[in-house]
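[scheduler] slot 2 assigned
[scheduler] job type: sequence-to-structure, two independent chains
[scheduler] chain ordering preserved from manifest
[runner] begin chain α
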Amino acid sequence: MQDARPASLPRRARLRLLALTKVFGAASAPLEFQILGRVLLRAALVGAAAGLLGSLFFACLEAVQRILLEDWAGYLPMRAGGEQVLGAVTVHHPFRPWVLLVLPASGALLGGAISTWLAPETRGGGSDAIIEAFHQNRGLVRKRVAFVKGIVSILTLGTGGSGGREGPTMQMGGAIGSLVGQSLKVSDRERRILLVAGTAAGMAAVFRTPLGAALLAVEVLHRDDFEADALVPSVFASVVSYSVFTAFFGESRLFTHAASYPFFPQHLPLYALMAIVVSFVASAFLSVLRAVQRATARLPVPQWCRPGIGGLALGLFATPIVVAIGPRFGQAGSGLGILGGGYGAAQLAIVGADWMPAGWRAAELLALLGAIKIVATCLTVGTGGSAGDFGPSLVIGGLFGGAFGQAAQVLLHDPRISPGAFALVGMGTFYGGLAHVPIAALVMTCELAGSYDLLVPLMLAEGVAYVALRGRSLYTAQVATKRESPAHRDEMILDVLTGVRVADVLIRNRPYATFTTRTPAQEVIEKAAENAWQDVFPVVDDGGALVGIVLSDVLRSMAANPDAKALAIAHDLMVPPVSVEDTDTLQVALVAILEHGLREVIVVEKGGRIVGFLDEAEITKAYQSVTGASRRLTQAE
């Protein structure tokens, strides 16, 4: 018998789909608290490990920065009001510009060499590497990544690299989550969840916003979607990690700010306009970052040298600015947040300082520091230096938001305008729009402010930036939705099939061969041979009810055995019937096909009368039709 239909699914794909149909088919079963408890226990383990490693990383980074940047170079880093300072500073060393000139290059060069030698995926911020591991690599991260990332980030940031410590701790925490999953030999899906939980725990440990960190970890993986399954484990891991970190360093918010920020509806248009300005700045930052990355890739030097070249460029760029700007404001040796994370500059935008000018000069100073921070960050992160992009993004947004608030206060002569409120909203707007994490950025800003006074302005500004920056993304590894993620490909197949009924795709009135239980085997073989498309042949009783099926494999065996077919009838050839109703979903039909090793299944209506057949090719066509329409709709949007 000739087979004119498309080939069936490969055996491996059939087995994977069969396993998934059993898992998701049982989704309506009662909640198994043992499974939930096991997931949360693993998340707690990941959170504790991430909290300990994050605490060690923070302490080592502070020690290296104190020795190299503050003592040797005499550089005075501006700190946020709630930033920890380990140990009292008793001696202020003289500022040595020549040391600051070469220090960032030395740390970045050594860090680049270690990264290239041991773990190339630790170059850059680290967030893209975690996102890629989730989508492309089944949640697998090499065991050495957490420790290598910590070492190279300490070298880069401790010597003045312009970047944040949160990006490295996110990658370190994600690596720990993956390591726990590999050690416990969990499934790919559970390992991915632990990877996300570890990412949240790494952020929560050092940024001190546990809820925002959990939301960021589940939201940053997609441009227009989030990982709902990982939310509760991420929250749990964040709480544990945050608790471990605060046990060592105490509980405090990162920034000091006004006691409250009263809400004035008249100021909402100003916040919307600020969001547009910040979106332009975010787009410019991304353009500069990509330009530096392209230029770095063209350099005719080994890859391990490139972060060192970026560090040298940073020293040449930043040192003259530190020499020129600091003394003008009575801050000799202070870069006003140019090097390192720069949270002190954001703090300046929020509450100001005694030495800070007022009015237009304040707006000019904040905008200038923001532009300088953009260049410094791109020279560090864009050349492969192991430093996070999260911290600088908040600082840049806060500086330009604060500058906008200062300018609005001068232009409108409205004493109710608080530049600090605009700085906080600008922080969340810049990163939330550029990383496509509006909800996480909103909650983080509220946690930083210690209240929800800015909730409404944040909602408006985040919405404006999300639309304005929809075509730009800080993370190249992000995918649009779960449907585009390889991590959810099989799940998406079943999700689509659950929403389509058999009757919607069934081709009715197609002629097919059927037999009674007494049909001679010879006649069965002859009629089956005349039908090129049919693999399953129904056997009915005298009332037309389906009592069994004859498979083409059996007919081939009978055709090769003349003695056997002479005496046999259809009843002797049939096996128990397999069918689905036309009101069932395509998922039910796929389960029937996969479980019984068929290529097609008989479709009956409520009374049991046969109304047609459904095969794999038609299910595949229906899936492609639905997903193709969804993809076209997404692209049109």
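[runner] end chain α
[runner] begin chain β
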Amino acid sequence: MAEVSVARRTGPHGFEKRVALKRILPQFARDSEFVAMFIDEARLAARLTHPNIVQVFDFGELEGDLFLAMELVEGSNVNRLLRTIAARGETVPLDLALHIASQTAHALAHAHAARGDDDQKLGFVHRDVSPANILLTQGGHVKLTDFGIATIRERSTHTEDGHVRGKLGYMSPEQVLGRPLDAKSDIFTLTTVMAELLIAEPLFGTGSELDVLVRIRDVDLEVLDNSPERIPRDVRTLLSRGLAREAAQRPDARVFADACDEIARRRGMGHAADRLARLLARLHLTEHDGPDTDLGPGARRTSWLDTGMVSTATEDLISGGDPVSPAIYRVQLDNGEELGPMSFPKLIQLITTGRITASSRVARDRGGFEAASKFSELTRFVTSPALSWSKGSLDGAVRRGRLRAADLIRETWRIAEGRETGVLHLWEDQRRKKIYFVDGRPEFVASTDRRELLGEYLVEHGYALRMEVEMALALLPRYGGHLGDALVGLGTLRPVELFRAITQQVRSRVMEAFRWTRGDWAFIEGERSHEETFPLGYETRELLRDAVEQVHTAELQAALEAVHETLIVPAPALDALLRAWPIPGAWRQVLLGVRGDATFSAILARHAQAPGADAEDVYRAIYLALACGLVRPADAD
């Protein structure tokens, strides 16, 4: 109905501001209904002042043409983001989808609560919360726009011929059916957009208009259910609430926004605006010349100490002038192979990932080869038990075995219940990981995976820019080899931010271990990491619960196939154990129903008869309970 141009708003003494100028297209300028909608948009938008809503600066008429001067948002929109992401075979990272949904919901909450001059609620409904109307700034912020078909009290939701307004694919069931709308209609369409960010395809499919409208009417979520992208349970629960068929069952905008923010908080997700800005720049959706940071989907990266994040240009910069640490090293491995020349950060990467050991010989600048322990800047790394990957360190293992389904959960439970202190080694070929426990709780994790390093985690989660991490790496010797201390010393991070980042990073490294399906494990009692550690803030039982939640359904089914027709018997103290276990209520009900009189298949069948039953809850509950000894197969006596 309108065209939008970039314009300059001028004023006295050279004042000038770029704005977006919206004007009705000539073919609609004499249409009374379109003119009324345009005027209503101006009146409505002028009442709404919120950082997530495009602001209106002026409204007027010139030579018979109505115009609306609005905030110019330089950036992109969700529609372009979705098309670009889908074309690349990617999906939008979870934290960014939550960020976009949250900020849009905050905008809707403000609009839905707006009041008129009589102090009565306007009864605002946007009715067009579609991807094209969710704008994304170059800085990664979100702004809702286009209030042209919004409704308020005493304004019709239909045109005179009964046509329902809204974009195909982004309507609520009540909108499709032509029923009266309230604010919950906007929640349905916003949730539709959020789901599409996570699956990168239309939620209600493609095809004829009629096919799409029928799927919306019936809330057919087959596309979401069949999506290969695994959506976490808490996020899926939020989606199901927002996509409820009945409007009364959906949360309001404020609750929806708070739920998005809380999920992000619990998952340690921060700095989403910066990460969104970088993603838009990487996809060339903005002109902002941001860092070329790969924020695409994939395995979650974790870290404790950085390694190979220094670009050639930065190494040249650090090497010039008066460097803080020696610029060039060479390494002679135990087999005589020589590596280098290399920078200090690259050398630390090789040490922390096990490529270089304490017995390797190192040369600095033009000096000769000496034991690595002779260099003060390397002492902390080559003498740390946590960063040593010698195979001889497994000789004192009190328990060991092959990694099979639920083995790591079972061993972690044993360590937790026995309040044991020691280190759990995991290895598969050249891949190694160590989890240090104190009184049954994990406190430190070391890994040979180059990606599992603190600097990478900080950049990935928006705590620091890559350039800032590179600068801190060059200063490691000054800060005793601690990257976190260097970042705090440089003013990049506040101590509380560092604490939170490391706490979340250690937890995610532990969680990554539960995804191993092959390899070996061994537990050595009494070993300590002797590294600076932070309290994880999670009970081991919570970690085990979360580990089971991330197991793929097919793995659960395969693991429990052997006990399918076996009686499942409860442990004597099952009730007491469940009271102290923070597991989902549905799992608790499954386990409280285990009385030793039913096989696993019978438990499945019995649970299927309960209202709102989900077979996945039975699989996860029994899987966890068997691994932790809460229940056992009768033939195990």
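[runner] end chain β
[qc] chain β: The first strand starts at residue 2 and ends at 10.
[scheduler] slot 2 released
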